[in-house]
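Regression test attached.
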Amino acid sequence: MNHSVTCTHRLVLPVDTNHHGTLYAGALLRIALEAAYITAHQAVGSGANLLLRRVLSLECYRPVPVGSMIEIRGVPLHMTRAYLVVGLLGVPLANEEGPWMDGLMGFVQVDSDGQPAPFPSELATPSTAEGEWKELGERMEKLLRVR
Amino acid sequence: MNHSVTCTHRLVLPVDTNHHGTLYAGALLRIALEAAYITAHQAVGSGANLLLRRVLSLECYRPVPVGSMIEIRGVPLHMTRAYLVVGLLGVPLANEEGPWMDGLMGFVQVDSDGQPAPFPSELATPSTAEGEWKELGERMEKLLRVR
Amino acid sequence: MNHSVTCTHRLVLPVDTNHHGTLYAGALLRIALEAAYITAHQAVGSGANLLLRRVLSLECYRPVPVGSMIEIRGVPLHMTRAYLVVGLLGVPLANEEGPWMDGLMGFVQVDSDGQPAPFPSELATPSTAEGEWKELGERMEKLLRVR
Amino acid sequence: MNHSVTCTHRLVLPVDTNHHGTLYAGALLRIALEAAYITAHQAVGSGANLLLRRVLSLECYRPVPVGSMIEIRGVPLHMTRAYLVVGLLGVPLANEEGPWMDGLMGFVQVDSDGQPAPFPSELATPSTAEGEWKELGERMEKLLRVR
Amino acid sequence: MNHSVTCTHRLVLPVDTNHHGTLYAGALLRIALEAAYITAHQAVGSGANLLLRRVLSLECYRPVPVGSMIEIRGVPLHMTRAYLVVGLLGVPLANEEGPWMDGLMGFVQVDSDGQPAPFPSELATPSTAEGEWKELGERMEKLLRVR
Amino acid sequence: MNHSVTCTHRLVLPVDTNHHGTLYAGALLRIALEAAYITAHQAVGSGANLLLRRVLSLECYRPVPVGSMIEIRGVPLHMTRAYLVVGLLGVPLANEEGPWMDGLMGFVQVDSDGQPAPFPSELATPSTAEGEWKELGERMEKLLRVR
């Protein structure tokens, strides 16, 4: 992997929950988007002006109890001149195996008029996804072929 | 289509925007989830106890200016004993052609312990997606095969 | 009734509650306003530019537990060249009779300077309120005479 | 007036605005409810356990620009053994005459089961509304007869 | 004390809580800032254009349960031509002795370009802090010397 | 420094701003608290159950424009058996020198009854603050002596 992993932490508060006392899906999606946006922003660097173009995939594996300190890791997994796909992993909660969520979100760079534009500088192509990112990378490859 | 379409309206306020004065992706995802959840809830009827299991796809086609009254249509496109996929379409804004977003979200029914459970009553299988839902239905068929 | 009913659904989340675990009145008022605003917007159609002018009446009949999927129906009950009153009904919750709330909210049309203006097109006068709207229509008639 | 006036101040932030850059009606209603609730709570004293029962009237006279420091005055205008009506006045903004809003909200006392209950101590009956409260007091008298 | 005390009341709702069911520190800080800002605004009067410059001190003494009606008192304790320090006291909750929080926040006046500016009119120097403000006034004197 | 730095990123959205289009102080304090809480949580590790005890100092040096991607660095600067002080630095914005904020926040560990308790494991005493943390560390030493 050429790019370093970006970590986002968040305390799950009652304001984020559903009536089961776990992370509400609407809040989860907003938090995941923020984690992906920050990852994409770090990868592009200064001059980044990014818009969400698509969610390729987002899976919710386990409920997240209120009071949890969650961590979402993000890494760029695919990159063209003006489009970037971020992989996301919800780091396993205490006493659990496997991530509580994972996802793939694609962002485009836009200019000041909101029109698609190349990234401000050439970005290194991410190498093949490895380790904990392997499965997500493979899913992305399949999904990129579908569209 | 056996199921009627569920419509969700929302006024886009400054609280929902990014610094470009358009609908922020984090707010868009939360609003889309709510529209999908309401659609799924209507389809399942009383006894519904649903959790978001996955976002199969969500596409953002056009920025949505602050002050817009948006409408998201939802319809169940796939259904098994305990799993349901909702299709979403953001109805074209004034003076625009084509939806500003579309999406596919899958929900599971759970019992009071949060464990997967069959729906409280048997649901009619949606017929093949037609009209404005055709394209989304075809994308869903491909995506269901990927996983 | 010449106008069709507009339905607004909402899942009551902990973020919307008071410390009794039921819908907080401040959240209820905001949700009711949104339902009324959407109803008025649908009735006026494109070119609508509406401001809340008054709440003629809003009654809270029953507490709404967290986790409820609520539905508010709205319909225009009174209309002049530049002023419109929307009736609201909170559809009875499971196992309850009678609405959990009802209300009457009046909106004015304004031009781009925020000055009162006629509606962009002539609107059909609502016929006398009937069915579930009868009582609310009668209350409105009395209240319109008070002011 | 036997009861002292309760003042509530609030800075109007972008989070509270509509797309015209003025106080959004949904935020206004929530803020007005909070001001009324605090007024009622002060009047009843310790042991207060209040629920909004109705909005008898709420009028919006002028838009409130973002950045305004608003002040809402509240006073109990009517009181029975278990029901209390609060009058509200939005203190005129700089360079304006007349309040930007006024309103009348009725609260009930409930016991720990949420059932109507008498107030914990006998409350002084408010004397006839005078001064800036006169007009609102007269409107209330008419509205109390309507219901 | 030349300046009158400004009181801010707030009902602690689930939206403001942590997972222990008490006021979340992030919400507490925002509420305290608002109370201090309102106090400073009242002291400076019309023409006030204030920015938070520093928190000199903020102490949290006791958890505040959801459902509490809290009161924060604020008073200007120090004033120069363009800088003002507000003292804050969280009025003891029912059945408790001593404040649940206190604090000292410093604000600067700025002109329309955001540059430091003198206050619009000369403000009375607060006399030595007395009564319930004595301890906070002494802490402030020590802290002003540290910087 | 024995402890690694914890970074928190955040996109400043309109929901976070004041009417000048910059980060509102109330939002800044909440974001700073979250960054400090995450830092403290990382330092204590699993078993952390932390409450904010005090803000020793928080300085706002420069306004932060809407749309900024901000980064707050946090590090434990002081530690006893049950109390921990976190230092915070707002990483300079593009084209600016010096942090836009810094701060010092103290947290206590509590047991399940909310009573002060020792940390679950012995924590390394932070070495003397160096580099960009030097000034903040010195300010902390002075402030710890004041109280």
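Expected vs. actual: identical. Chain E is about 20% helix and 30% strand.
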